[in-house]
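Because discrete structure vocabularies remain unfamiliar, we first show an illustrative case, written as a sequence plus integers encoding its fold.
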Amino acid sequence: MALLIVKVGSAVPEVACVRGDYDSWFATLTGFADSYGSVAPQEGDALPSPEGLAGVLITGSSAMVSDEEEWSERTGRWLVDVVRAGVPTLGVCYGHQLLAHALGGRVGMNPAGRAIGTREVRMMPAAHGDPVFHGAPEVLTVQLTHREIVLEPPPGAERLIRAEHDAYHGLRFAEHAWGVQFHPEMDTDYVGVLIRQRADAIREEGLDPDALLAGLRESDDGPALLARFGAFVRGERS
């Protein structure tokens, strides 16, 4: 059985033409480079039955969950079935928000404004016994870029990570379903490209793109999370 990557966004073209798109990044970092499938519901792709899927990973996107576009709402309804079927599932950024929205939470613009660059986030006590987060450091150094966040988690969700600007930065939605607001697949080279491309908007919002670029720091914390999720999907329990 293969990992299904639900690609709801794309890397910027000048990077994608050299390094491939988000789905290939995630496949490599989870250890499924030779055994994954990819669907793009934003482009009209049909979503398969959850039956027979080893795991599901939902990528980030430049779209907004709160816009409730048809393709996004359709994907959200499908994710409810995936979670109910017990398929190991991980949502990243948009994927995290979409899971929260579909399962009954609330997503919207972060009152603290845009977050982009390298930041530290903190593990909550519930994360220590979690099969995917177990073994991670108390404070993770991560790459992020987003404007919307989970404002209210869905019923029954457990908080695993908090950030200074985002109380629900990492959630466990069900026994085998997780979401993280940060981007474990991104490195500082890519985030630097995003900061430079969005420098004007960043300045208009009162942030300093030069300071954000100077503050970028590489970290293995994101890739390590994806490796642990991949191991969970393959049944490699520690």
User: Anything to note?
Assistant: Residues 76 and 99 are 7 Å apart (CA to CA).
